[in-house]
Specification:
heterodimer; A: 316 residues; mainly alpha; 3 domains; globular; B: mainly alpha; 11 helices; membrane (chain B); transmembrane helix (chain B); DUF969 domain-containing protein (chain B); transmembrane (chain B)
Chain lengths: 316, 223
């Protein structure tokens, strides 16, 4: 059976290659950072939690004190790319499309045909595993077709990875922060505080505080998934559903979406807001957030209205 | 009640405001929160290490970078621009609104991996939007170019966030279902996902009209 462990080895080997190439360029900080990440992927499942924690601290020390730099591996010039693009034509899109198509078509086949009964993939892990399969297939196809120098995919990947830099592991780090917050009971404390500040008896104000809490807590945690259980337990279920008799389906579904409006406005949602700014080489790290605020605020107002109308006016 | 662990949140907010390195901010917040909640430092480091290890799947997606980088070496971005330049009547506004609709509909059908920043926005959508904007408005300044690219990234996010919850087998729907079920309110995923539709329509109307207004504004500055 293919499990996530296979993906971790694949990614670990990739990060190890990037570390070696950084070493060759004498980018010591980059080499150390990617080597530690490679170690986390390759041996993380076999060492103690403390060793994993120390790996994290070492990576943060390198990145936190400015040890990561942009690399500049040799690549084709803009003129060369123009000429190649004209010669190769729209076939260039095909290898890029292999990855999502493998992931989507594979997931559908696995879930709705007898293919799933083979038990080839770890349960509920098939999409990401198929994504990995798609990457390998696309890479092999592109290598056979374009016949680039052997190291080209690794060097081109490193060019992109170093333009992302430390932000590449921020989403994973935020997930870890969420786990520590949960362990420390931060959610329960916030829920208690939120429950105390709401004036009794006003349905609309309670809806407002619920939606506001979802958006704000999501902005702090970078993730609506962390905010939802807290706000549902503090306000959504005890007040809106039990006390005021609102429709639980609306409160749950649209409450989560009010949190997504917060995701659009926070640098903590790194993989949606900070990583693309780096990938697109924007000068302003918050450029993507700036374009999203104008959508997020009116949409949040819509969500408040939908909860109030859908869960109370139409329901009762 | 012990309110001290909330200091972790203060560290996060202040750290970002003062533009410290985010990794440093996040780890400091985690260590401070754990210790203030009464755990000893080694236990907090262990918890952090375990959680980082358990969430490695999030960073696995970077293995796509060699494929995208290799195709860029052979002119993928230039090809994306050429396709748009060859289309008559293609404007940035129409292109991004079409992408918004495409992203929302495919996400609503459960195909949320069909877009995304490394695999779709950087190599395809952003260069296409840039080419379309230049076609209608002429050469763009550096700042305008960045805004067009940022709008392309924003469109991907809005499309994904407010499309995916219509699909009933998505993680967020399952989470909502789980939370309500444990509180004694059993709901089916379908009951929840239909209530994502009104917000999806609002998101399309709001973001779509903002894209079109942005396109008009780009044009007005130069005339």
């Amino acid at each position: 059976m293919i499990t996530y462990e296979w993906l971790y080895v694949l990614a670990g080997v990739g990060f190890a290659v990037w570390a070696l190439l950084s070493l060759r360029d004498r980018l010591w900080g980059n080499a150390g950072f990617w080597a530690l990440l490679a170690a986390s992927f390759l041996i993380g499942s076999h060492v103690s939690d403390l060793v994993n924690g120390l790996l994290v601290l070492a990576m943060v020390a390198i990145a936190g004190f400015g040890g990561l730099r942009r690399s500049d591996p040799s690549t084709t010039s803009v003129e060369e790319r123009q000429a190649l693009s004209a010669r190769l034509g729209n076939r260039l899109f095909l290898p890029a499309l292999v990855v999502p198509l493998t992931a989507v078509a594979g997931t559908l086949l696995y879930n709705y045909t007898p293919f799933g009964e083979t038990g080839l993939f770890e349960t509920r892990r098939e999409t990401l595993i198929l994504f990995g399969v798609g990457v390998v297939v696309a890479l092999v196809l592109a290598m056979l077709w374009l016949r680039p120098p052997w190291l080209a995919p690794a060097e081109e990947g490193r060019r992109l990875l170093d333009s992302i830099g430390w932000a590449a592991i921020l989403p994973q780090m935020l997930a870890a922060l969420g786990a520590v917050f949960a362990l420390a009971g931060v959610g329960d404390i916030i829920g208690g505080v939120a429950g105390d500040v709401i004036p009794k008896g006003s349905v609309f104000l309670t809806v407002l505080v619920f939606a506001l809490g979802m958006a704000l807590f999501t902005m702090i945690m970078g993730n609506a998934f962390a905010a939802f259980p807290v706000m549902a337990a503090a306000i959504g279920i005890p007040l809106l559903v039990q006390q005021y008799g609102g429709n639980p389906a609306v409160i749950g579904a649209v409450g989560m979406l009010a949190g997504f409006c917060g995701t659009l406005m926070t640098p903590m949602a790194a993989n949606f807001n900070i990583v693309p700014a780096a990938l697109l080489e924007l000068k302003d790290q918050n450029g993507v957030i700036r374009q999203q605020i104008g959508t997020a605020l009116p949409l949040w107002v819509c969500n408040v209205a939908i909860i109030y109308v859908g869960a109370f006016l139409l329901w009762n | 009640m012990n309110y001290w662990p909330l200091l972790g949140i203060v560290i996060v907010v202040l750290g970002f405001a003062l533009r410290f390195n985010p990794l440093l901010v996040v780890v400091s917040a985690a260590l401070a929160t754990g210790v203030l909640a009464g755990l000893d430092l080694v236990a907090v480091i262990e918890a952090l290490g375990k959680a980082f290890n358990d969430n490695r799947y999030i960073s696995v997606t970077w293995i796509i970078l060699p494929v995208i980088g290799l195709l860029e070496r052979y002119g993928l971005q230039q090809r994306a621009r050429a396709v748009i330049e060859g289309m008559r009547g293609a404007t940035m506004g129409k292109l991004l609104v079409a992408y918004l609709a495409f992203r929302q509909v495919t996400a609503a059908l459960g195909m949320k991996d069909i877009g995304g920043h490394p695999q779709a926005v950087r190599p395809l959508v952003a260069p296409m939007a840039e080419a379309a904007a230049q076609k209608t408005h002429g050469e763009l300044s550096g700042g305008e170019r960045d805004k067009v690219k940022a709008m392309a990234a924003a469109t991907d996010n809005v499309g994904l966030f407010f499309g995916e919850d219509i699909f009933f087998a998505i993680a967020s729907i399952l989470l909502i279902q789980g939370v309500f079920e444990s509180a004694g309110y059993p709901l089916t995923p379908l009951q929840l996902s239909v209530w994502a539709i009104p917000t999806a329509i609002c998101a399309f109307l709001i973001h779509g009209s903002r894209i079109l207004a942005f396109d008009r504004r780009l044009g007005r500055v130069r005339r």
